[in-house]
Amino acid sequence: MRPYNSGNHQLTRPFSVDQAWNATVDRAGQCVLFFDFDGTLAPVEDDPTAVQPAPKVLAAIEALTEVVQRVAIVSARPVEFLRDRFASLTDVDLYGLYGLEHSHGSAETVTEPAALPWVPTMVELAERARAELPEGTLVEYKRLSVALHYRTAPELAAAVESWGQAQAGRLGLRVQCGRMVIELKPPVDRDKGMVIGEAVPSAGCAWYFGDDVSDIKAFAALRAREAADPSFFGICVAVANPETGQEVSTAADLTIESPEALGDFLTEAVHRLS
Ligand SMILES: O=P(O)(O)OC[C@H]1O[C@H](O[C@H]2O[C@H](CO)[C@@H](O)[C@H](O)[C@H]2O)[C@H](O)[C@@H](O)[C@@H]1O
User: Which is the most buried residue in 11, 34, 240, 267, by most CB within 10 A?
Assistant: First the structure.
């Protein structure tokens, strides 16, 4: 595979964790670290409201903000949810709802204007889902999207997905499938790949950590940046899981065992980059 210029190091895929960090040390001040939230920084729970970052994650990210150019969380959760989980971190960029919302540092949340007219549709959709879907489905209303979960009732997968697809057709919404979930979103062009594509032009390197199929678009954005500029290097890291893990790992450069292991990995990264 084509070697690419990573400062003082020439890396050729596949590369090891040590090689990736050594190449990052040379340009830590130009490096952006992007993290997905659920299943990456936080272990999966049956109840989406109960989720918290894994041990060591908050301390490690806080320390990393001092040594890299930027740290950003890129999630399908609303910014308000992310801000609550990362309240102690004032220097982290938050991208919520696949980039329909963002907030930089402690600034106000900005919402993509084209998505706002879809709020009433989402309210109606969430009400209808609660009334029509079988018991065991968990309906998560997120203002500009609705997630239909079947983690605690996997036998409902086909029924929930078919109901969601039908509603998307009826209302003109887009569908994003994930780990035991189908999500309906406004027909507005925002995804994790677009967020990363817009955020990396001024960076010399970037790491993206993710566990779900929506994160593969973010990996692709790093690959595209690298193809356009051989002096840039992007490192795609999968977090293993029994549902989407194989697909995400196949698209990644490196795989980490779990969100808890990522906490350890980031703690080690602080020492390597400091
Ligand atoms: O982009 P992300 O930050 O990874 O968000 C993706 C979805 O994460 C949440 O659902 C997932 O985690 C839940 C809590 O652990 C779990 O119960 C569910 O099965 C997973 O799909 C979140 O609730 C969704 O809104 C996000 O779309």
Answer: 34
Whether ligand 1 lies within 6 angstroms of the CB of 151 is answered as yes
At 105, the pLDDT band (50, 70, 90 cuts) reads confident
Q: What is the pLDDT of residue 88?
A: 92
- Domain 21-111+190-273 belongs to what topology? Rossmann fold (3.40.50)
pLDDT, mean over the chain: 95
Give the residue, out of 34, 38, 182, with the most ligand 1 atoms within 8 A of its beta carbon, to mutate for a pocket test. Answer: 38
Q: Is the CB of 179 under 6 A from ligand 1?
A: yes
Distance 76 CA to ligand 1 centre (A): 7
Q: Whose CA is nearest to atom 17 of ligand 1?
A: 46
DSSP for 140-163, written as a single string: EE-SS-EEEE-TT-GGGHHHHHHH
For CATH 3.30.70.1020, list the domain ranges present in the chain.
114-185
Residue 135 CA to ligand 1 center (angstroms) comes to 19
- Residues in CB range of 158: below 8 A, 6 or more apart: none
The per-residue DSSP string of 163-178 comes to: HHHHHHHHHT-EEEEE
Summarize pLDDT for 44-60 with one digit per residue, the tens. 999 999 999 999 999 99
pTM (predicted TM-score): 0.96
Check pocket membership of 94 for ligand 1, CB cut-off 6 A.
no
What number of other Cβ atoms are within 10 A of residue 43's Cβ? 18
Ligand 1 in contact with 73 (CB < 6 A)?
no
Write down the pLDDT at residue 33: 98
> CA-CA distance, 190 to 187, in Å (whole number)?
9
Domain with CATH 3.40.50.1000 in the chain: 21-111+190-273
ipTM higher than the 0.85 cut = yes
- pLDDT tens readout for residues 116-140: 999 999 999 999 999 999 999 999 9
